[in-house]
Amino acid sequence: MTDLVAAARRFATEAHERIDQRRKYSNQPYQEHLKAVAEHVAGVTDDAEMLAAAWLHDTVEDTPATFGDIERVFGRAVRDLVAELTDVSRPGDGNRAARKAKDRHHLAQASARAKTIKLADLIDNCTDICRHDAAFARVYLGEAAALLDVLGDGDPRLYRRAQQAIAACARRLGLPAPPQSLAEGDVVHPPGELSLSQRRALRLFTDAFTASEIAQPLRSYDCERGVNALSDLAARDDLEVAGLRRDGVCVGFLNPDVRPARHVDDLLRPFEPAQVVPRDASLSEVVHVLTQYDFCFVTAMGDVAGVITRGDMQQPVVRMWLFGIITLMEMELLERIRARWPDGGWTGLLSAGRLDKAQALLAERRRRGQHVDLADCLQLSDKARILMDDEEQRLAFGLRTKGAAKRVMSDLESLRNNLAHMQDIVTYDWPQIARLARNIEERLRRHGGDRL
């Protein structure tokens, strides 16, 4: 194993371990999937950059690492492979079918090297999903078959194995091979509708909290100054990022890892479309960009004029937004408990100690003249514990197993505590922030069409 591949294995393993990411069905450490993908790729090539990207292919999509982190450690070529393998769709881009189509189009433009890695990823995912989740496998197989249509440039041996994996799974489920893509109406969506007040609150979170509230002005320099002057300015001003202008228009930014350069183009990093948002973009869109990139650039009057970094997500406005989302989610948990157990039968699902604490709080609140019942006195962790034992309720939040539900709710409680005590929420809670952003975008897509 080359030094590059060994470093990629360590980096990816540690990144996924830090957020305790595990395989959805087997609960194995996530690096078991990465290892399987890398081994499939190693069976057809000894290309070190491809093998490194195989280990890293989910790192930007799933962990706090950005494309910038990948490039700084592993170089531009590995970074580009990881970018080709990372989904570009956002939760607000439509239903699952629309988002998958956008990601498929992105993958269709990828290099043959990236497509080979994706074939390895598809083989392992197909095997795992088919073995453990027959219901979802019917959806996934249709998507996998559609993916094969754009992966023909990948390694032919892995392409045949992917075909065989899909066909074997289809036979196991009694489906034709290759399976037909399911119509949108055939896809089972999580149950549950938001109340009118929740939908209004959801819309408020989108309209009231936007990129313009937290963006910092992007200081920029004219490219015409020349490479030496630009390097001197960057060193003098000690900016985290600076824009570069040509003919008065900001066309890119100064590479933060400035090295000796012979030409201005060596310093210029063009804006990637996926990292630029309008000033009225929602904060969830900003989070999506910062999950993949070091910088989110904000336009005004058609030109890039502002920038947001993860550090800016510590601002009070963002904290208010996140606390509001968590409060809205907690309200939904309570409403679901009342609807699922209208007779109060949920009390049998709590430990005696937790129930005693709720009853003590109820007595105190009633002493103060508040008109509440026992369910109003449950803590966030209590509400989650009650609901997550119920499969239908778990699925309503996109959580397929009890283990996954337990980890998500524990992380959510950690984020809420850090928000309440003004602690750092970026270093330790970024995966939870990204998860909340995806959640609110998905709910807006499903419930927020009407301006309430």
Verbal overview:
By secondary structure, this protein is an alpha/beta fold. The chain has 3 domains: 3-186, Hypothetical protein af1432 (Orthogonal Bundle); 215-310, CBS-domain (Roll), CATH 3.10.580.10; 316-447, no CATH class. The chain has 20 helices and 8 strands. The strands form 2 sheets. It has a 4-stranded mixed β-sheet. Strands 2-3-4-5 form a 4-stranded mixed β-sheet. Helix 1 runs parallel beside helix 3. It starts with a helix and ends in a 5-residue tail after the last helix. The model is unreliable at 179-192 and 448-452 (pLDDT under 50).
What oligomeric state best describes the polypeptide chains here?
A: single chain
Q: How big a fraction of the residues is strand?
A: 5-15%
Major β-sheet annotation:
4 strands, mixed
Form type: globular
What's the CATH superfamily of the largest domain, by name? Hypothetical protein af1432
Helicity, as a percent range: 55-70%
List low-pLDDT spans.
Answer: 179-192, 448-452
The helix-and-strand class reads alpha/beta
Instruction: Write down the domain tally.
Output: 3
Summarize the helices and strands and which ones pair or pack.
Blueprint: H1 3-18, H2 31-42, H3 48-56, H4 59-62, H5 67-74, H6 76-85, H7 96-108, H8 112-132, H9 134-148, H10 156-173, H11 196-208, E1 216-217, E2 220-222, H12 227-237, E3 243-246, E4 249-254, H13 264-267, E5 268-270, E6 276-278, H14 283-292, E7 296-300, E8 303-308, H15 316-340, H16 352-367, H17 380-388, H18 391-396, H19 402-420, H20 430-447
Parallel strand pairs: 2-3, 6-7
Antiparallel strand pairs: 1-8, 3-4, 4-5, 7-8
Helix pairs in contact: 1-3, 2-3, 2-8, 3-6, 3-8, 5-6, 6-8, 8-9, 8-10, 9-10, 11-15, 14-20, 15-17, 15-19, 17-19
